[in-house]
Amino acid sequence: MSIRTITAIVLILAFGALLAFMAFNKSEPSEPIRLASADDCQTCHPEVYAEWKSNWHAKAWFDPLVRAPDQSDNFKKKDCVPCHAPRPIFEAGIGAGQRVVERQSNRQDGVDCVACHKLPTGGFAAANRNVTGDCGPRFHPSMATVDLCTPCHNQHNTVNEWRASDATLRGANCNHCHYPPVTRPGRNGGPPRTGRSHALRSWRSENLEMPALTIGSKIIEDEEPRAFAISLINDKTPHNVPADSRNRALDLVLTFYKAGGQAFSAADGARDFGQEPGTYRMRFRNPYRSEIGKKNTQIVSGSTVILKKEIPPDAVRARFALLYKLTPFTPDEEAIEIYSEEVSL
Protein backbone atom coordinates (compact mmCIF):
# COMPACT_ATOMS: atom_id res chain seq x y z
CA MET A 1 0.00 0.00 0.00
CA SER A 2 1.45 3.30 -1.02
CA ILE A 3 2.02 6.24 1.30
CA ARG A 4 -0.52 8.24 -0.74
CA THR A 5 -3.20 5.59 -0.15
CA ILE A 6 -2.47 5.39 3.57
CA THR A 7 -2.66 9.18 3.86
CA ALA A 8 -6.05 9.22 2.11
CA ILE A 9 -7.43 6.54 4.46
CA VAL A 10 -6.22 8.46 7.50
CA LEU A 11 -7.86 11.66 6.27
CA ILE A 12 -11.15 9.86 5.57
CA LEU A 13 -11.15 8.30 9.04
CA ALA A 14 -10.32 11.62 10.68
CA PHE A 15 -13.11 13.40 8.80
CA GLY A 16 -15.57 10.66 9.75
CA ALA A 17 -14.57 10.92 13.39
CA LEU A 18 -15.06 14.68 13.25
CA LEU A 19 -18.56 14.28 11.81
CA ALA A 20 -19.43 11.71 14.47
CA PHE A 21 -18.16 14.01 17.22
CA MET A 22 -20.19 16.93 15.89
CA ALA A 23 -23.31 14.81 15.59
CA PHE A 24 -22.89 13.49 19.11
CA ASN A 25 -22.38 16.93 20.62
CA LYS A 26 -25.03 18.75 18.61
CA SER A 27 -27.71 20.13 20.97
CA GLU A 28 -31.03 19.57 19.33
CA PRO A 29 -33.70 22.17 20.26
CA SER A 30 -35.86 20.76 23.00
CA GLU A 31 -39.63 21.09 23.10
CA PRO A 32 -40.82 24.10 25.14
CA ILE A 33 -42.10 23.16 28.57
CA ARG A 34 -45.87 22.97 28.77
CA LEU A 35 -47.49 25.74 30.78
CA ALA A 36 -51.15 25.33 31.63
CA SER A 37 -51.79 28.29 33.94
CA ALA A 38 -50.37 31.54 35.22
CA ASP A 39 -48.99 29.78 38.28
CA ASP A 40 -46.66 27.83 36.00
CA CYS A 41 -45.09 31.12 34.87
CA GLN A 42 -44.35 32.36 38.38
CA THR A 43 -41.02 30.54 38.83
CA CYS A 44 -39.25 32.35 35.98
CA HIS A 45 -41.25 35.59 36.06
CA PRO A 46 -42.01 36.38 39.73
CA GLU A 47 -42.16 40.16 39.28
CA VAL A 48 -44.44 39.99 36.24
CA TYR A 49 -46.62 37.42 38.00
CA ALA A 50 -47.00 39.68 41.05
CA GLU A 51 -47.92 42.64 38.84
CA TRP A 52 -50.51 40.57 37.00
CA LYS A 53 -51.91 39.11 40.23
CA SER A 54 -52.63 42.62 41.51
CA ASN A 55 -54.64 43.78 38.50
CA TRP A 56 -58.19 43.35 37.29
CA HIS A 57 -57.22 40.96 34.52
CA ALA A 58 -56.32 38.41 37.20
CA LYS A 59 -59.62 39.12 38.99
CA ALA A 60 -61.77 39.07 35.86
CA TRP A 61 -63.60 35.87 36.80
CA PHE A 62 -64.42 36.80 40.40
CA ASP A 63 -64.97 40.54 39.98
CA PRO A 64 -68.13 41.22 42.02
CA LEU A 65 -69.16 44.02 39.69
CA VAL A 66 -69.01 41.69 36.70
CA ARG A 67 -71.00 39.05 38.56
CA ALA A 68 -73.67 41.55 39.65
CA PRO A 69 -77.27 41.03 38.46
CA ASP A 70 -77.12 44.06 36.15
CA GLN A 71 -73.93 42.71 34.56
CA SER A 72 -73.24 39.02 33.83
CA ASP A 73 -75.56 37.83 36.64
CA ASN A 74 -72.95 35.29 37.82
CA PHE A 75 -72.13 34.61 34.17
CA LYS A 76 -75.63 33.44 33.34
CA LYS A 77 -75.15 35.82 30.44
CA LYS A 78 -72.90 33.54 28.44
CA ASP A 79 -71.67 36.32 26.16
CA CYS A 80 -69.58 37.62 29.08
CA VAL A 81 -67.65 34.38 29.67
CA PRO A 82 -65.16 34.46 26.74
CA CYS A 83 -63.57 37.76 27.72
CA HIS A 84 -63.40 36.93 31.42
CA ALA A 85 -61.98 33.42 31.02
CA PRO A 86 -60.52 33.31 27.49
CA ARG A 87 -58.65 30.58 25.69
CA PRO A 88 -55.36 31.78 24.14
CA ILE A 89 -56.38 34.66 21.92
CA PHE A 90 -54.07 33.61 19.07
CA GLU A 91 -56.15 30.46 18.59
CA ALA A 92 -59.13 32.40 17.26
CA GLY A 93 -57.05 35.23 15.82
CA ILE A 94 -56.56 38.84 16.80
CA GLY A 95 -57.46 42.15 15.26
CA ALA A 96 -60.66 43.68 13.93
CA GLY A 97 -63.70 41.42 13.88
CA GLN A 98 -62.13 38.69 16.02
CA ARG A 99 -63.60 37.38 19.26
CA VAL A 100 -62.02 35.16 21.89
CA VAL A 101 -63.35 31.73 22.81
CA GLU A 102 -64.13 30.75 26.38
CA ARG A 103 -62.04 28.11 28.14
CA GLN A 104 -63.36 25.36 30.38
CA SER A 105 -60.50 25.05 32.89
CA ASN A 106 -58.68 27.43 35.25
CA ARG A 107 -61.39 30.03 34.91
CA GLN A 108 -60.37 31.36 38.30
CA ASP A 109 -57.28 32.84 36.63
CA GLY A 110 -59.37 35.26 34.59
CA VAL A 111 -57.30 36.84 31.82
CA ASP A 112 -53.97 35.14 32.49
CA CYS A 113 -50.50 34.81 30.94
CA VAL A 114 -51.56 31.85 28.81
CA ALA A 115 -54.52 33.75 27.37
CA CYS A 116 -52.40 36.58 25.97
CA HIS A 117 -49.06 34.89 25.23
CA LYS A 118 -49.56 31.25 24.22
CA LEU A 119 -49.14 30.49 20.51
CA PRO A 120 -51.09 27.70 18.79
CA THR A 121 -47.89 26.50 17.10
CA GLY A 122 -46.12 26.06 20.43
CA GLY A 123 -44.17 28.40 22.65
CA PHE A 124 -45.16 31.84 23.82
CA ALA A 125 -45.35 35.21 22.11
CA ALA A 126 -42.97 37.87 23.38
CA ALA A 127 -42.79 41.60 22.68
CA ASN A 128 -39.00 41.70 22.89
CA ARG A 129 -36.56 40.34 20.35
CA ASN A 130 -33.77 37.89 21.18
CA VAL A 131 -35.57 36.34 24.13
CA THR A 132 -34.83 32.84 25.39
CA GLY A 133 -36.39 30.59 27.99
CA ASP A 134 -37.74 27.17 28.81
CA CYS A 135 -41.23 28.11 27.64
CA GLY A 136 -39.98 28.74 24.10
CA PRO A 137 -40.61 32.48 23.84
CA ARG A 138 -40.62 33.92 20.34
CA PHE A 139 -40.79 37.50 19.20
CA HIS A 140 -44.24 38.24 17.88
CA PRO A 141 -44.83 41.75 16.48
CA SER A 142 -48.53 41.68 17.36
CA MET A 143 -47.66 41.80 21.06
CA ALA A 144 -46.90 45.51 20.64
CA THR A 145 -50.04 46.41 18.67
CA VAL A 146 -53.60 47.32 19.51
CA ASP A 147 -54.73 44.17 17.69
CA LEU A 148 -53.82 42.16 20.80
CA CYS A 149 -56.47 43.95 22.87
CA THR A 150 -59.16 44.01 20.18
CA PRO A 151 -60.81 40.56 20.66
CA CYS A 152 -61.98 41.53 24.16
CA HIS A 153 -61.81 45.30 24.47
CA ASN A 154 -63.60 46.14 21.26
CA GLN A 155 -66.80 44.51 22.45
CA HIS A 156 -67.69 47.99 23.69
CA ASN A 157 -65.97 49.77 20.76
CA THR A 158 -62.98 50.98 22.77
CA VAL A 159 -60.47 50.02 20.10
CA ASN A 160 -62.60 51.65 17.39
CA GLU A 161 -62.64 54.82 19.51
CA TRP A 162 -58.85 54.60 19.82
CA ARG A 163 -58.43 54.25 16.06
CA ALA A 164 -60.65 57.29 15.48
CA SER A 165 -58.74 59.50 17.94
CA ASP A 166 -55.97 61.96 17.16
CA ALA A 167 -52.71 60.16 16.40
CA THR A 168 -50.79 62.56 18.65
CA LEU A 169 -52.75 61.25 21.65
CA ARG A 170 -52.75 57.54 21.21
CA GLY A 171 -49.11 56.52 20.92
CA ALA A 172 -48.38 53.19 19.24
CA ASN A 173 -50.86 51.06 21.17
CA CYS A 174 -52.78 50.61 24.43
CA ASN A 175 -49.49 50.02 26.29
CA HIS A 176 -48.75 53.72 25.92
CA CYS A 177 -51.01 54.49 28.91
CA HIS A 178 -52.04 51.21 30.49
CA TYR A 179 -48.73 49.28 30.59
CA PRO A 180 -45.95 51.82 31.27
CA PRO A 181 -42.25 50.87 31.05
CA VAL A 182 -40.68 49.23 34.09
CA THR A 183 -37.20 47.97 35.01
CA ARG A 184 -36.95 44.61 36.77
CA PRO A 185 -33.99 42.76 38.33
CA GLY A 186 -31.88 40.72 35.94
CA ARG A 187 -32.09 36.94 35.99
CA ASN A 188 -29.28 34.94 37.63
CA GLY A 189 -27.36 38.06 38.58
CA GLY A 190 -27.56 39.54 35.11
CA PRO A 191 -28.14 43.21 34.27
CA PRO A 192 -31.56 44.78 34.93
CA ARG A 193 -34.17 44.20 32.26
CA THR A 194 -36.68 46.67 30.88
CA GLY A 195 -40.19 45.75 29.89
CA ARG A 196 -43.82 46.74 30.37
CA SER A 197 -45.55 46.72 33.73
CA HIS A 198 -48.36 44.17 33.95
CA ALA A 199 -50.07 46.07 36.79
CA LEU A 200 -52.62 47.53 34.30
CA ARG A 201 -53.11 51.20 35.12
CA SER A 202 -56.69 52.47 35.03
CA TRP A 203 -59.09 54.63 36.98
CA ARG A 204 -60.06 51.50 38.88
CA SER A 205 -56.50 50.66 39.93
CA GLU A 206 -54.81 52.07 43.01
CA ASN A 207 -52.63 54.26 40.82
CA LEU A 208 -55.02 56.87 39.43
CA GLU A 209 -52.38 58.95 37.65
CA MET A 210 -54.09 58.48 34.31
CA PRO A 211 -54.34 61.19 31.68
CA ALA A 212 -57.98 62.12 31.35
CA LEU A 213 -59.48 65.57 30.85
CA THR A 214 -58.60 69.25 30.87
CA ILE A 215 -60.98 70.90 33.34
CA GLY A 216 -61.76 74.60 33.41
CA SER A 217 -64.27 76.93 35.10
CA LYS A 218 -65.18 80.59 35.03
CA ILE A 219 -67.74 83.10 36.24
CA ILE A 220 -69.42 84.88 33.33
CA GLU A 221 -69.91 88.45 34.58
CA ASP A 222 -71.12 90.08 31.37
CA GLU A 223 -74.46 88.25 31.43
CA GLU A 224 -77.56 89.07 33.42
CA PRO A 225 -78.03 87.07 35.53
CA ARG A 226 -74.45 85.97 36.00
CA ALA A 227 -73.55 82.45 35.01
CA PHE A 228 -71.02 79.82 36.01
CA ALA A 229 -69.50 77.55 33.36
CA ILE A 230 -67.46 74.36 33.60
CA SER A 231 -65.67 72.90 30.60
CA LEU A 232 -64.40 69.35 30.18
CA ILE A 233 -62.05 68.74 27.26
CA ASN A 234 -61.12 65.19 26.33
CA ASP A 235 -57.72 66.18 24.96
CA LYS A 236 -55.55 63.68 26.84
CA THR A 237 -57.28 60.34 26.27
CA PRO A 238 -57.34 58.49 22.92
CA HIS A 239 -60.82 57.03 23.47
CA ASN A 240 -64.14 58.07 24.93
CA VAL A 241 -64.50 58.86 28.64
CA PRO A 242 -65.58 56.86 30.53
CA ALA A 243 -64.42 53.95 28.40
CA ASP A 244 -65.13 50.28 27.84
CA SER A 245 -67.67 48.80 30.30
CA ARG A 246 -71.17 50.16 29.90
CA ASN A 247 -71.74 50.22 33.65
CA ARG A 248 -69.11 52.94 34.15
CA ALA A 249 -70.36 56.47 34.74
CA LEU A 250 -68.68 59.86 35.12
CA ASP A 251 -70.74 62.51 36.91
CA LEU A 252 -70.07 66.24 36.91
CA VAL A 253 -71.81 67.66 39.99
CA LEU A 254 -72.23 71.42 40.53
CA THR A 255 -73.56 72.75 43.84
CA PHE A 256 -74.32 76.37 44.76
CA TYR A 257 -74.26 77.42 48.43
CA LYS A 258 -75.84 80.24 50.42
CA ALA A 259 -73.94 82.35 52.98
CA GLY A 260 -75.04 80.08 55.81
CA GLY A 261 -73.65 77.01 54.05
CA GLN A 262 -77.00 75.66 52.84
CA ALA A 263 -76.83 73.97 49.46
CA PHE A 264 -79.30 74.83 46.74
CA SER A 265 -81.37 71.72 46.08
CA ALA A 266 -81.54 69.97 42.74
CA ALA A 267 -82.84 72.39 40.16
CA ASP A 268 -84.07 69.65 37.85
CA GLY A 269 -86.35 67.86 40.30
CA ALA A 270 -86.25 64.16 41.13
CA ARG A 271 -83.26 62.16 39.93
CA ASP A 272 -82.43 58.54 39.42
CA PHE A 273 -80.77 56.52 42.16
CA GLY A 274 -77.10 57.44 42.42
CA GLN A 275 -77.61 60.97 41.09
CA GLU A 276 -79.43 62.65 43.98
CA PRO A 277 -77.15 65.41 45.41
CA GLY A 278 -76.04 68.65 43.80
CA THR A 279 -77.81 71.64 42.28
CA TYR A 280 -76.99 70.57 38.72
CA ARG A 281 -75.25 67.59 37.18
CA MET A 282 -74.23 66.01 33.91
CA ARG A 283 -73.73 62.29 33.47
CA PHE A 284 -71.37 60.77 30.91
CA ARG A 285 -72.03 57.13 30.10
CA ASN A 286 -72.67 54.56 27.39
CA PRO A 287 -76.06 53.08 28.39
CA TYR A 288 -76.80 49.39 28.67
CA ARG A 289 -78.18 47.77 25.54
CA SER A 290 -81.44 47.26 27.43
CA GLU A 291 -81.78 51.00 28.11
CA ILE A 292 -83.64 51.66 24.90
CA GLY A 293 -84.00 55.35 24.11
CA LYS A 294 -81.12 56.55 26.29
CA LYS A 295 -78.36 58.42 24.49
CA ASN A 296 -74.67 57.67 24.67
CA THR A 297 -73.22 60.65 26.55
CA GLN A 298 -69.55 59.60 26.69
CA ILE A 299 -67.09 62.43 26.11
CA VAL A 300 -65.62 61.62 22.71
CA SER A 301 -61.85 61.90 22.34
CA GLY A 302 -60.99 65.40 21.16
CA SER A 303 -64.37 66.90 22.08
CA THR A 304 -65.48 69.48 24.65
CA VAL A 305 -68.59 69.55 26.85
CA ILE A 306 -69.76 72.58 28.84
CA LEU A 307 -72.08 72.86 31.82
CA LYS A 308 -73.30 76.45 32.07
CA LYS A 309 -75.84 77.52 34.70
CA GLU A 310 -77.24 80.76 36.11
CA ILE A 311 -75.85 81.75 39.50
CA PRO A 312 -78.69 82.17 42.04
CA PRO A 313 -78.81 85.76 43.38
CA ASP A 314 -78.02 84.73 46.97
CA ALA A 315 -75.34 82.15 46.15
CA VAL A 316 -71.90 82.98 47.59
CA ARG A 317 -69.97 79.84 46.73
CA ALA A 318 -69.90 77.08 44.13
CA ARG A 319 -68.32 73.65 44.33
CA PHE A 320 -68.04 71.20 41.49
CA ALA A 321 -66.65 67.68 41.42
CA LEU A 322 -65.97 65.02 38.81
CA LEU A 323 -66.98 61.60 40.15
CA TYR A 324 -66.05 58.27 38.57
CA LYS A 325 -68.52 55.51 39.32
CA LEU A 326 -68.09 51.79 38.76
CA THR A 327 -71.86 51.41 38.33
CA PRO A 328 -74.54 53.98 37.47
CA PHE A 329 -76.17 53.27 40.84
CA THR A 330 -73.12 54.12 42.96
CA PRO A 331 -73.93 57.00 45.38
CA ASP A 332 -71.70 60.06 45.24
CA GLU A 333 -70.03 59.33 48.58
CA GLU A 334 -68.80 55.96 47.27
CA ALA A 335 -67.51 57.30 43.96
CA ILE A 336 -63.87 58.00 43.09
CA GLU A 337 -63.43 61.77 43.12
CA ILE A 338 -61.25 62.56 40.13
CA TYR A 339 -61.32 66.32 40.61
CA SER A 340 -62.99 69.01 42.73
CA GLU A 341 -62.84 72.78 43.00
CA GLU A 342 -64.48 75.52 45.08
CA VAL A 343 -65.09 79.04 43.76
CA SER A 344 -66.20 82.16 45.60
CA LEU A 345 -69.00 83.92 43.78
Structural class by SSE content: alpha+beta
Question: In angstroms, what separates the terminal alpha carbons?
Answer: 117 Å
- What radius of gyration results from the CA coordinates? 29 Å
Major β-sheet strand ordering: 8-7-10-11
- Approximately how much helix is present in the residues? 10-25%
Element string (H = helix, E = strand): HHHHHHEEHHHHEEEEEEEEE
Number of domains as seen in the coordinates: 2
Oligomeric organization of the protein chains: single chain
Major sheet summary line: 4 strands, antiparallel
Low-confidence stretches: 5-29
Query: How many separate helices?
Result: 10
Tell the overall outline. Answer: elongated
Number of strands: 11
Mean pLDDT over the full residue set: 86
Walk me through this protein's architecture.
It is a single chain. This protein is α+β, with helices and mostly antiparallel strands and 345 residues long. The chain has two domains: 159 residues, no CATH class; 131 residues, Immunoglobulin-like. Helix content is 19%, strand content 19%. It has ten helices and eleven strands. The strands form four sheets. A four-stranded antiparallel β-sheet has the order 8-7-10-11, with no helix packed on it. Strands 5-6-9 form a three-stranded antiparallel β-sheet, with no helix packed on it. The radius of gyration is 29 Å and the shape is elongated. The termini are far apart. About 7% of the residues have low confidence.
